[in-house]
Automatic annotation (TrEMBL):
PROSITE patterns: LYSM. The keyword DNA-binding does not apply. PANTHER family: LYSM DOMAIN-CONTAINING GPI-ANCHORED PROTEIN 1 (PTHR33734:SF35), LYSM DOMAIN-CONTAINING GPI-ANCHORED PROTEIN 2 (PTHR33734). Gene3D superfamilies: LysM domain (3.10.350.10). Residues 1-29 form the signal peptide. Keywords: Signal. It comes from Acer yangbiense. This is LysM domain-containing protein. Residues 364-373 have a biased composition (Polar residues).
Length: 426
């Protein structure tokens, strides 16, 4: 993979830009560009910093993505009442899961549109609303705007966003790429530490000759992930879930998680939607995600009912049996975080800790049934207008599922989360 990237990525050369700037042109931020040939797409992430307080659903519409997928990508507990109307605080850093396509020979995401409002300018849309993920020039070009000073109100602008696929691998291991906008306090080594990768790897991925970075550069950061093996004809073919997070699929019927113990995708019923096709494996009484084990002299006979993709509205299940040397322990889940409500300033310039570095993982008893009270001890879920119905249906449906996952010390993980967010947001 390294080779492929080195030869195929074109990255603005910083020294060249310096020379250009010396002769009086504006210095442009650099960004990793991945050439592509076919029309396939992949899952990718955008690192986004909120420019103001926004509801989860508003962040979703800003990027044209399912709000629930934003929450699961950030391992945020979706069982909170009316969680789609939860207000996320200004300056919070979140990962936005997007589909990365191939447009005019390069990777980018083009499904995002922005409707202009009074007082918007191309540069305010670029640097504030989309937190530097797009530039004013790119907006002007993508929308063929003649005079950037005259921006009509209510116009729908295409917002091209940077993303990379690199074949879903990094050093031959499954990976999802995060498009990260460099802040002036960042160093490449710091970013590498935050995302548990190496300086060399980041330099290879981004085809950099030196570790020098500059505010507003956009770099591709590989995140280790769990890859699915769903067939081509499955609508969620190619699904890949970063370590420490979740994804929701099959019309909100199936929830898949990755990590912390291993990088095998683990899927189970999500009970987000009311009407889901059967999630029981044929010729067995096992449900999606169920595992039975039988210790014998030869080893451990493990039978698993696993998820095989979403095909024509049907949840594909498959039963498999394997003989393993040892019986696996109970399934572990990435810790869930409470919907964040504040971004504390004093931690902002603390040294970047590795995200979610407790490493403990949380074992969730499969049989536990936790009543969906929607509120966890010690935390007051900040909910939006309670009468608002729009986001509520998905959220309330989500309750039963995630509450059963929410059996770890929430306050502690919230602390880690805020600490983590601090380390990477402004
Ligand atoms: C992409 O990765 C897959 C394994 O995930 C591998 O089989 C394939 O050869 C890779 N393709 C390229 C072009 O490197
Ligand atoms: C393992 O378990 C399955 C299902 O319980 C059974 O059909 C199979 O014969 C067992 N295999 C061995 C080697 O025990
Ligand atoms: C799914 O639907 C398409 C057309 O809607 C059909 O051609 C295909 O055979 C279906 N596949 C399965 C597995 O039912
Ligand atoms: C996945 O995340 C867990 C916990 O954050 C960590 O302990 C583990 O090393 C990670 N695995 C990989 C392959 O990065
Ligand atoms: C099988 O999975 C279902 C759905 O996740 C769960 O409710 C049930 O407790 C599991 N059964 C066993 C025996 O693990």
């Amino acid at each position: 993979m390294g080779k492929l990237k080195d030869s195929s990525s074109i990255v603005w050369s910083w020294s060249l830009l310096l020379m250009i700037s010396n002769v009086g042109l504006l210095v442009k931020a650099k960004s990793t560009i991945e050439p592509c040939a076919n029309s396939d797409s992949c899952n990718a992430l955008l690192g986004y910093t909120l420019y103001t307080d926004l509801k989860v659903s508003e962040v979703g519409s800003l990027f044209n993505v399912d709000p629930v997928s934003i929450l699961t990508a950030n391992a945020i507990d979706i069982s909170y009442p009316d969680v789609e109307n939860h207000i996320l605080p200004s300056q919070l850093f979140v990962k936005i899961p997007i589909s990365c396509s191939c447009v005019d020979g390069i990777r980018k995401s083009v499904s995002t549109h922005y409707k202009t409002r009074p007082s918007d300018t191309l540069s305010s849309i670029a640097s504030q609303i989309y937190s530097g993920l797009v530039s004013a020039d790119q907006l002007r070009e993508a929308n063929a705007i003649q005079d950037p000073d005259v921006l009509d109100v209510g116009v729908s602008l295409i917002v091209p966003l940077p993303c990379t696929c690199f074949n879903g691998t990094d050093n031959l291991l499954p990976a999802v790429y995060l498009s990260y906008v460099v802040r002036d306090v960042d160093t490449l080594a710091g970013i590498a530490a935050t995302y548990r990768t190496t300086l060399t790897d980041l330099m290879n991925v981004n085809a950099m000759g030196s570790p020098a970075i500059k505010a507003e550069d956009i770099i591709a950061v590989p995140l280790p992930a769990c890859a699915s093996k769903f067939p081509r004809y499955a609508s969620d073919n190619g699904m890949i879930v970063p370590n420490g997070s979740y994804a929701i699929t099959a019309s909100h019927c199936v929830q898949c998680s990755c990590g912390p113990g291993n990088l095998n995708l683990y899927c189970m019923p999500a009970s987000l939607a009311v009407s889901c096709s059967s999630m029981q494996c044929r010729n067995s009484n096992l449900m999606l995600g169920n595992v039975t084990m039988q210790q014998s002299s030869a080893g451990c006979n493990v039978t698993t009912c696993s998820y095989g993709g979403f095909v024509n509205g049907t949840i594909i299940t498959s039963l498999s049996t394997s003989l393993q040397p040892r019986c696996p322990g109970p399934q572990q889940f990435p810790p869930l975080l409470a919907p964040p409500s504040s971004v504390s300033r004093d931690k902002m310039f603390a040294p970047a800790p590795a995200p979610q570095s407790d490493g403990a993982g949380t074992t969730i008893p499969k049989t536990s049934v936790v009543p969906s009270t929607g509120s966890l001890p010690g935390l007051s879920p900040a909910s939006g207008p309670s009468g608002s119905a729009s986001g509520a249906s998905g959220a309330s449906g989500a309750s039963s599922l995630v509450n059963s996952l929410a059996t770890f010390p929430t306050a502690f993980t919230l602390y880690l989360f805020v600490k983590f967010m601090m380390s990477i947001s402004l």
